[in-house]
Design a protein that fits this description.
about 290 residues, alpha/beta, two-stranded antiparallel ribbon, 11 strands, metal ion binding
């Protein structure tokens, strides 16, 4: 069972929901919480656990071999990401732009662009009680999030059975990293806030998950500020708005201190319980 927590923009409360949902469910069953916002993971700020595994992650990039190159220029032609620049007397490779697709290497007739490994980040696995926490984190300067997200998801797939609950804290937005996290999820929970920015980006996120044909629902964070456009939009579109987390100073203080909200704020505990009830009532992940 894979549940992706996503949002159209950052700062809406994805991590708040993901961490509180994970710890709450881990009180009664085994749960995996994965922070896949690899450019800026912060779920780990709420997890104090025993280190189980840590590894450096790598991506594959081409390296130019000038002794074999005949300067045909095919490498630049087949690269869709502008990561290879073929000049009259040399070839430049830009590792930060490379997606590791092997096209330039495989289609070079002289084999002058062999692939090699390059460190791109770190994968860390902590254990605490019934909760396994896994975090992927890019090195500073690395721009390609998708390869590390794929490796982190592969680590989870190898290490845990299909029927265990996996809560995936996705990157914000609607681009490739979000799609990589959500494309195989059984449920996508879109977290938003009742502000003009929140409403605008929620609609983008809804368009994305509908295009992916994913089951999804909405949780409204900071309820009490802004207006009711998100609520009316969900009603008009037939979208389940399954929980509201209130806006309060107490919540902000607990969150900023690294505390779990559901343990101290009744309204947050009720919201998390509503999410769990929705998951169980709709038998998420049990259809197949």
């Amino acid at each position: 069972m894979k549940i992706a927590i996503a949002s159209g923009k950052g700062g809406t409360g994805k991590t708040t929901l993901a961490t509180n949902l994970a710890f709450y469910m881990a009180e009664s069953e085994s749960v995996v919480l994965a922070d896949l916002d690899v450019e800026e993971p912060n779920s780990g700020l709420f997890v104090q656990g025993r280190l189980h595994h840590r590894e450096t992650t790598y991506k594959m990039i081409p390296v130019w071999n000038k002794d074999l190159c005949t300067h045909g220029g095919n490498c630049q032609t087949v690269c869709n990401f502008n990561a290879v620049l073929a000049m009259p007397r040399s070839v430049m490779v830009f590792p930060e732009l490379c997606h590791g697709c092997f096209a330039c290497s495989e289609l070079c007739p002289t084999g002058s662009l062999p692939m090699t490994t390059k460190p791109m980040g770190e994968l860390k696995h902590l254990k605490t009680g019934a909760l396994d926490f896994i975090e992927g984190k890019l090195m500073i300067g690395e721009e390609q999030a998708v390869p590390l997200i794929k490796q982190t998801l592969a680590y989870i797939k190898r290490g845990f059975p299909e029927n265990i609950v996996k809560i995936l804290d996705a990157p914000p937005g609607t681009s490739c990293p979000v799609i990589e996290v959500t494309k195989d999820a059984d449920l996508v929970i879109l977290v938003t806030e009742p502000t003009p920015f929140g409403f605008h980006d929620l609609k983008l996120a809804v368009d994305t998950v509908r295009h992916l044909e994913k089951r999804f629902t909405v949780v409204l964070n900071r309820f009490g500020i802004g207006d009711d456009k998100v609520t009316r939009y969900c009603e008009e579109e037939g979208i389940d708005l399954i929980a509201r987390i209130p806006n309060s100073r107490k919540i902000a203080e607990i969150y900023s201190a690294g505390g779990l909200l559901y343990q101290e704020v009744t309204e947050v505990r009720d919201a998390v319980k509503s999410v769990v009830a929705y998951i169980h009532n709709h038998s998420i992940g049990q259809e197949s």
